[in-house]
Structures are given as C-alpha cells and as structure tokens.
C-alpha cells in the first residue's frame, strides 16, 4: 500500500470521477484507475463502485477513506516536523477558491510566493465555500478563500479580508427603492435571484430568513455574482448580494439595505494549521497582498 494510492482514492471520492480526479492529481486516467485497483486488490475489497455514471464509494471504500485521510495527514505532519527543524519550504500546496470569485490580491500572493519558493508546487481548485471548508478540515486543501458567515469557521483558523452587509439589489424604479429600505418580509413578496446554497452570502440570508420564519421564493440561482446582478438588472428577480457586489452598477441596479439582516457576510482565508512552513510562508504573502494585519481574526467594520 502506497500513500499515493490513498491520495488517489480520496481524489476519486471527492470528484466522483476518475477523469476529474486524474486531472486534479496530474496523472493519466488509466494510471489513477490502475493504482486504485491495485489498492483494492491489496485490501481484498472493492472501494469504488464503477457501475453508474459517477464513481461512488462502496461501504468498504467509505470506511477506508476515513483512515486514508488520517494516514495522509500523519504523513504530512511528519514532513512538516522535519521541515520545521531544517527550515525548508517545499512540497505541494493545494489552494482553494470559491467559485465565481475573482480576487486579484490572491493571485498576486500566489505569484509572489511562487517566485520566492519555486520548489513548492501550487495547485488551485474551485468549489462552493462549504465544500472547500470541509476539504480544509480533511486535509485535502491547505488554504482556501471562502465566503462564510462564521469567522473563524468551526475548527479552523481564519484571516478576514472583507466583511460587509447583505443587501437586495433591484433595477432602477423598482418598488423596493421606495423608501430605499426593506425587510426580509418585503423581499418575500418578490421572486429572488441568489447565489447557490453553500456560499457565505446565501448562508447568511437563509439563516436570517429561517430565524424570522420567512420562506422566500428563490426563482433563479447562479454561481457568479455578476450573473446574479445581471439577471436582476433584467427584471428577473431581486438579487441578494453583498454590498460591494453592487458597486459599479449604478446605471442598472440600486442596492437596498435590509433592516432586519444584521449579520455580515465575510470573505476570508481559512486553514487548519500553519505548522507547515509552506502554509506559513503563503499566509505571509497573502497578508502582504491583502494588506491585512497578521492577527486579523474578526470581521472588518466596513
């Protein structure tokens, strides 16, 4: 049994596809398939059900995956312990980024880190915030840029980059622009355009609606804030976005504050441990790129 076989098992389980898993770990599909089959032969059990359109874990595979992740985490800890003593920054870092979010300072941080530490392989993955946080907790992602209502997310460390109100965004002349403030109950009278479940903004909105006993009508969903804003500007519903996502659209959209939604939506970097010298070094580059203090843990006031 080899560590790479355990890594491949985890990749197939998370991607539900041998093809996507192969692309993620930079090997051929036949190579990853052969390694997983070799692991199955070694353990004497089928770990992946290949009979459907997607690759899914068998009961034996689900049991094995939990221990495979623990083994990979332990192996990484051994490397971190040695590197901490020797002062080396090396290895491979997997960085996660929430879908539909293009943040130039993160790219600048990755570029400056790569120049300073060319021996570290960087991988970038996209997913919903909830999925990324689960992958950070499982050790499959080292550092993730996520939208979250909770800072820090449960069981993780976090550096808040931005925290701001969730607003309604409506076309010019929409009834909600008079008197330019609204409540969650007001929104319930209109079809809404939202980001998907699992995103920080959607979680803040859903929690507030649930607490108020309101069941909004979600007419349309899109993973890109630009798409949500464009759909609302075309009159297809009221958009639910963060305040900054409405900037630069004054000719088409008007942000409407929600008086009874007081929780902030945060954009944050999340990680499980900074004992890995490579993670610590990348965090330093991120702090420089985003211009945030090293002890930033609470939501910003803006």
Task: Characterize this entry briefly.
The protein is of the alpha/beta class and 302 residues long. Helix content is 42%, strand content 23%. Strand 3 (91-98), helix 5 and strand 4 form a beta-alpha-beta unit.
Description:
Among the domains are: 86 residues, Orthogonal Bundle (Arc Repressor Mutant, subunit A), CATH 1.10.10; 102 residues, 3-Layer(aba) Sandwich (D-Maltodextrin-Binding Protein, domain 2). The C terminus is likely disordered. Helices cover 42% and strands 23% of the residues. By secondary structure, it is an alpha/beta fold. Helix 5 links the parallel strand 3 and strand 4.
Give the secondary structure arrangement, pairings included.
Layout: H1 3-15, H2 18-25, H3 29-43, E1 48-49, E2 56-57, H4 59-86, E3 91-98, H5 104-116, E4 120-127, H6 129-138, E5 143-148, E6 157-171, H7 184-187, E7 191-194, H8 200-212, E8 217-221, H9 225-233, E9 238-242, E10 253-257, E11 264-271, H10 277-290
């Amino acid at each position: 049994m080899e560590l790479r076989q355990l890594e491949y098992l985890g990749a197939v389980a998370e991607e539900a596809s041998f093809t996507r898993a192969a692309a993620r770990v930079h090997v051929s599909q036949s190579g990853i398939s052969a390694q997983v089959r070799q692991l199955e032969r070694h353990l004497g059990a089928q770990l992946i059900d290949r009979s459907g359109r997607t690759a899914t874990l068998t009961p034996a595979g689900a049991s094995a995956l939990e221990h495979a992740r623990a083994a990979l985490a332990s192996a990484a800890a051994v490397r971190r312990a040695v590197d901490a003593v020797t002062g080396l920054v090396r290895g491979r870092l997997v960085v996660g980024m929430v879908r539909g979010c293009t943040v130039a300072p993160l790219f600048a941080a990755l570029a400056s880190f790569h120049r300073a530490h060319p021996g570290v392989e960087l991988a970038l993955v996209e997913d919903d915030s909830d999925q990324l946080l689960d992958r950070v907790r499982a050790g499959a992602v080292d550092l993730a840029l996520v939208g979250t209502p909770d800072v820090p997310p449960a069981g993780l460390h976090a550096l808040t980059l931005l925290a701001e109100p969730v607003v309604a965004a409506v076309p010019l002349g929409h009834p909600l622009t008079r008197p330019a403030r609204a409540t969650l109950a007001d929104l319930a009278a209109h079809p809404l355009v939202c980001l998907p479940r699992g995103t920080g903004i959607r979680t803040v909105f859903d929690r507030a609606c649930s607490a108020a006993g309101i069941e909004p009508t979600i007419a349309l969903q899109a993973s890109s804030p630009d798409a949500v804003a464009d759909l609302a500007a075309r009159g297809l519903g009221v958009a639910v976005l963060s305040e900054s996502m409405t900037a630069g659209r004054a000719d088409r959209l008007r942000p409407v504050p929600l008086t009874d939604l007081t929780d902030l939506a945060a954009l944050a970097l999340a990680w499980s441990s900074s004992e890995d010298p490579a993670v610590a070094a990348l965090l330093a580059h991120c702090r420089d790129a985003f211009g945030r203090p090293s002890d930033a843990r609470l939501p910003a006031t803006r």
